[in-house]
Amino acid sequence: MNQFEEDFIFGAATAAYQAEGAVNLGGKGKTYWDDYLKNQGVFDPSVASDFYHQYPEDLSLCQQFGVNGIRLSIAWSRIFPDGTGEPNQNGIDFYHALIDECLKNKVEPFVTLHHFDTPEALYKKGDWLSNEMVDAYVDFSSFCFKEYSSKVNYWITINEPWSVVAGQYIIGHFPPNINYDIPKAIQSMHNMLVGHARVVKIFKETNYPGEIGIVHILESKYPIDELPSSAQAAKNEHLVANQFLLDGSLIGSYQEDTMDIINKVLEKNKGVLKTTPEEFEVLTLAAEQLDFLGINYYASHFLSAYDGESLIHHNGSGEKGSSIFALKGIGERVNNPAIPATDWDWPIYPQGLLDMLVYISKRYPHYNKLYITENGMGDKDILENGTVADDNRIEYVFLHLEAIQQAISQGINVKGYFIWSLMDVFSWTNGYNKRYGLFYVDFDTQKRYPKKSAHWFKTLSSSKQLISLDSFNSI
Ligand code: BGP
User: Fold this and answer.
1) If you measure from the C-alpha of residue 34 to the centroid of ligand 1, how many angstroms do you get, rounded to a whole number?
2) Cα–Cα distance measured from residue 70 to residue 102, given in angstroms and rounded to the nearest whole number
């Protein structure tokens, strides 16, 4: 029962801006993060994990530790420094070299085309709220297919539309730092889905080899108590953050039960969603042709009703218990004392992953196949004697893999798991002390140190057998 199939991918995830560093090298253009982070002066992403230079070592570590898949993203502004126009040969060559290195080490690359890093020039034109951005994204993606499709088998169009729009327009910790503008967030999600769908259409029409999918962050939402108003709050957040995107990408239209809630939320927040029939045509086509859905899962949330004005405090420092997340017309996330949480207040709830997988298989039975494209535990790791005793992380991953195995045993088609992250990386809104990697990075020297979890992962990947921390300790 605890055996994984031979072809199950045991991967690890990265994203260009969080891992590469080299933000000013090789002719790279700016993303919307560069000046924002510089002006804020709190976190410096300019070197990050120096993946730009260290990737041969990182891929060699993958091979040594049984990591047989990697999520990496192509930094759009390395290829097109201004988002559009003349491509930059230096950037093009970098990704050829990186992908070749993956293949040399027998690490399957899953390549993401947009991972939170819109080029600054397009961001200034309105980012995903502008048609110009959507057109440019389609052109950039087509360029990447032409350039790299002979060596890439798995493409991901966009990473986590929900996190992008929540960060930009609701929480306000991503530029342009707008708070509580739920209508803008919903419009932007729709536009991202349209961009995604147009890219899928081109990929399929041109008959590129390989597979294409999209990645959503999908966290289950539960009522905190028996009150019908809490159930409604959980439903509201689920519909806005999960079901809207799943309908759009797996059905190609927003179903009646989805629009029912979306319209109520829009009404409370004085907004409308603009769509066209042509957009739904392309969305429907893409939904039929989607090869896989990637699921990023870290946490689930417990909710109660909330009637006040929206109010959020983002815990970006690891000060446990400091989060607030209450949205007008949706609900309020509340602490469930029975459920443990990380120092950043992310509830650790593997059952939420199983519930999500079951929900997807029931509501979208034609889903094709699933990958868990991110899952992992952010912690304040301590390097001691050249390693990190990250037992908490091993237990976290073990419990989530156990949930995945339960889903598989119920006939749900999950084909791989990518731990976030391969090595410690830059965290967008939490900087460098929230570490997730299998490999500890000393950010002063850029030296890598395999954590205990890396050794555990190697045993898991080579045996294809889920092994508990206790059993691993006794080997
Ligand atoms: C996901 C993103 C990743 C990564 C991860 C951990 O939402 O796709 O890019 O950042 O979350 O999040 P954080 O760094 O905020 O802890």
Assistant:
1) 18
2) 8
At 51, phi and psi to the nearest 5? Answer: -60, -30
Residue 161: cis peptide before it, omega within 30 degrees of 0? no
Pairwise CA distance, residues 17 & 34, whole Å: 10
CA distance 32 to 174: 9
Tell me the pLDDT tens digit for each residue of 260-309. 999 999 999 999 999 999 999 999 999 999 999 999 999 999 999 998 99
Predicted local distance difference test score (pLDDT) of residue 409 = 97
- For residue 377, being part of any structural domain is answered with yes
CB of 437 closer than 8 Å to CB of 452: no
Domain count, the chain: 1
323-375 pLDDT, tens digit each: 999 999 899 999 999 999 999 999 999 999 999 999 999 999 999 999 999 99
Which residues form the domain of 205? 9-473
Is 374 catalytic? The answer is yes
pLDDT tens string 181-218: 999 999 999 999 999 999 999 999 999 999 999 999 99
Query: Ligand 1 pocket: which of 420, 434, 435 to mutate (most atoms <8 Å of CB)?
Result: 420
In a domain, 328, yes or no: yes
Instruction: Flag whether 130 is in a domain.
Output: yes
Residues near 333 by Cβ (< 8 Å), separated by ≥ 6? 237, 301, 302, 303, 323, 325, 326
Q: CATH number for the domain including 114?
A: 3.20.20.80
Evaluate: CB of 421 within 6 angstroms of ligand 1.
Answer: no
**Predicted local distance difference test score (pLDDT) of residue 2:** 81
- Which listed residue (20, 120, 219, 374) is catalytic? 374
Cβ atoms of 157 and 114 closer than 8 Å: yes
| Residue 1: inside a domain | no
The C-alpha atoms of residue 67 and residue 460 are separated, in whole angstroms, by 10
The residue contributing the CA closest to ligand 1 atom 14 is 427
Is 120 an active-site residue?
no
Ligand 1 centroid distance, CA of 163 (Å): 9
Q: Residue 3, SS3?
A: strand
- The residue annotated as part of the active site, out of 120, 160, 219, 237, is 160
Length of the chain: 475
